[in-house]
Amino acid sequence: MPDYGHMWLWVNLVAAPDISRLEASDYEHAIIDSVSAALDADLADWQAEFEDCVNDAKTGAARLDWLDFHRRGLALARRLRAEMPDNISVFYQKPFEDPNEQFEETKDVLRDGLKTLPAQARRLRSGRQVPEWLPVTILSGAQTEVGRAALDWAICERIPHAGWCRKQRQTADAGLNLKYQLHQTQSRSERFVMEQNVFASDATLIMTDAPLRGAGKLALELCRQHGKPFYLVNLSELTISAAADEIRAWLMATNVARLNVAGPSSIRKQQLYRLVFAVLDELVPWIGFDEDV
């Protein structure tokens, strides 16, 4: 895994009991010396890219093209595996700065392929407990402030996120921030992108602050057309707590592992963004979990 100031971590699993596994310097230097100069240089360049990136002010996530970064990182890990003897294990682990750290977090790099290791217990960055009803993945095309607020909330809590976006990561008002790990479609059609996210999810949560229109109305039509579950919340008619209570009750009654979040754009963009973020942040209580939650 990349880390600030370090390219990788060598751990001596067979060190003597009185020697720290991380302080077995002879072991560490022996392995580093066995890495080819070409691989060492490529690893250094890859590591430098991580260290030079800027962290997003809202979420703390590093602004990297994480999908491409990990693709190249895994290629380097395979090269490292090929240069190491069989008594050395090679693992590829995502860093904390990756907002999708908890999705396929660690891979065992084998000579004949990759093996994803069992996931660790789910955890929220805020420290709150993870209820069973909380979706495993948040999806959105990030075309409006509703979708971007949902993705930012997921990133802040390190809940894995995904989704489909327009060709060349276009939106109605700007290009998408690299922190959003979305797959590009080959279409610039808002309808096509929305349909992909409706298909890829178990259910869709639609939030609006006015009579339904635009992307919110399109999401509703597509859910009905394809028989996909949805829940519509008009945030102008509810307090933040009441909206969170309604959504929580719906999620508890519906088995939703992959939740798509959609809604229309608004002339009050920042207000709607903050409202959606606040409602989602209210979903998981800090204390007082009931046994059936």
What does this structure look like?
The chain has helices at residues 25-33, 37-52, 66-83, 145-157, 190-200, 214-226, 240-253, 269-281; strands at 91-93, 106-110, 113-116, 137-139, 161-162, 164-165, 183-184, 203-208, 230-234, 258-262. By secondary structure, the protein is of the alpha/beta class. It folds into 2 domains: 21-116, no CATH class; 137-281, Rossmann fold, CATH 3.40.50. The strands form 3 sheets. It has a 5-stranded parallel beta sheet with strand order 5-4-10-8-9, with helices on both faces. It has a 3-stranded antiparallel beta sheet with strand order 1-2-3, with helices on one face. α5 (190-200) packs across α6 (214-226). The protein is elongated and about 65 Å long. Residues 20-27 and 288-293 have low confidence and may be disordered.
Write down the CATH topology of the largest domain.
Rossmann fold
Q: What order do the strands of the largest sheet run in, or round the barrel if closed?
A: 5-4-10-8-9
For the record, the count of structural domains works out to: 2
What does the largest sheet look like?
A: 5 strands, parallel
Helix-residue proportion: 25-40%
Q: How many extended strands?
A: 10
The top level CATH class name of the largest domain: Alpha Beta
User: For the residues shown, what is the average pLDDT?
Assistant: 84
Q: What is the strand content?
A: 5-15%
Give the ordered list of helices and strands.
HHHEEEEHEEEHEHEHEH
- Give the structural class: alpha/beta
In whole angstroms, the N-to-C terminal distance is 35 Å
CATH architecture of the largest domain: 3-Layer(aba) Sandwich
The helix count comes to 8
Could you tell me the radius of gyration in angstroms?
Answer: 22 Å
